[in-house]
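User: Could you write out the 3D structure of this protein bound to guanosine-5'-diphosphate? I've included everything you need below.
Assistant: Certainly. Input first, then the structure.
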Amino acid sequence: MPIERTLSILKPDATRRNLTGQINARLEAAGLRIVAQKRLHLTTAQAEAFYAVHRERGFFRDLVTFMTSGPVVAQVLEGENAVARNREVMGATDPAKAAPGTIRKDFAESIEANSAHGSDSAENAAVEIGFFFAAIEIVG
Ligand code: GDP
């Protein structure tokens, strides 16, 4: 199985409720290593750029407002099939549809304030990791 890296973001609803440690414990228990991590408060321009792919969606403005409403924790996760593994541990976008035991099922407040982001492909992971981190900041 390939060792991959994926970009994870612990969203403002998670930092606000002091849940970052509990979420990190879930990630680590799933075999994902946190090889880079930083806490930051996204500007509107940064959130718009990160979610540019969703620019035409009806919820884009709300999503940008939410993602800039408090600090986030951006992280690079490394492990076997890290992209798929992280999405498995996060669960479905809508917490009402997420499987039991997943981060979103247990912690998310809504389909928008759903506690965590995870890249959806290896290609997007590379782009998203480059958005937040320089190579020198990733320590495997
Ligand atoms: P993900 O890959 O599971 O994060 O889901 P998407 O890429 O489809 O959506 C990106 C993010 O936009 C989600 O994680 C949510 O925070 C938000 N989002 C998705 N669908 C909706 C929606 O229908 N309404 C609102 N308000 N936010 C949404």
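Strands lie at 3-10, 33-40, 72-80, 116-118.
User: Perfect, thank you.
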